[in-house]
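Next comes a concrete protein, fold included:
___
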Amino acid sequence: MAAVYVHVRRRENNIRRNRVFRDRDNPLDYLDDDDIVRRYRLSRPMILELCGMFQNQLARPTKRSHAFPVSLQLMVALRFYATGSFQLVNADVHRISRASVSTITRDVTQCLKNVCNQYISMPTDPASLQALKQCFYDISNFPNVIGAVNGTHVRIKSPAVDEHLYVNRKNYHSLNVMGVCDSNLKFLNIVAKWPGSTHDSFALRNSRLCEMFEDGDIRDGWLLGDSGYPLRPWLLTPVINPTTRQDQRYNACHMRTRCAVERSFGVLKSRFRCIDTTAGTLLYSPVRCCDIIVAVVVLHNMCINNRIPLPPGNDNPRDQGNIGGQQYVGNQNDGAVIRTRLINNRFNN
């Protein structure tokens, strides 16, 4: 009898039981519109738009278990972008595993990177360039400006390979990110691939944007940059040692107009804390960090297009990653004639 009893118990233990799935709440179902913007930075219609856009890429065609809905995947990734919180914290908030948070963030980041050209682009047609010039002119009467360029540093963890290249002048590991924006704080160009030790002028000189100006794809208009960039026919920088009233007026007007790009980076980092020093450090490889930066710039431009406000307490955002002070030293200063002509004609009164 004892042998029969043990055999029956073994058969009972081998019976397959139905898996019990914990109910996962979707924040879209219970948060109001203001809370969604406050916690996830995007509005409900924008999130639903992204769900439709990435449905094919993010839908999990599996019958093995309950797959995460696309909307929940987007909310998980947006929560990371907005706060920069640890994966375990994000997992607890959404009641999923830490591994799932990692996979979801990677996949959503890749989806956003794949559509970056749709949301980040430098216009070349005359009508769009004229609109840019007018908007910049309205700031401080500086003519012919089609963009403001600057660099910012995004703190990352110490890389396993070529660690020394990522140490910037402030002695922490970072990526040097170059951006060009319009007067509405929307990014027209972003370059996120250079280590923190890279000079701003090097990042610009080796960019596709520089080629567009040099090859004549953009034939009219100036960029405004700080003294870390070379003075070129298409890139105007401040006068280093102004000696006349005209030079001082030019510098003041130049600074008021160019500060749009510093405000753009400030708004970007205030909206998406994952790339701001207040959230700590991006704990990923440099390649993954570059992808995340591009992803949040895409989301930033979407927020600008849809007039999404900044979270409360961020009325005057500042770019904490602008370490400045890198004056350009080189021979490419063939824009001196153009700058001198502009100062004499426009700022002589």
Summary: Residues 19-23 have pLDDT under 50 and may be disordered. The first helix runs from residue 2 to 13.
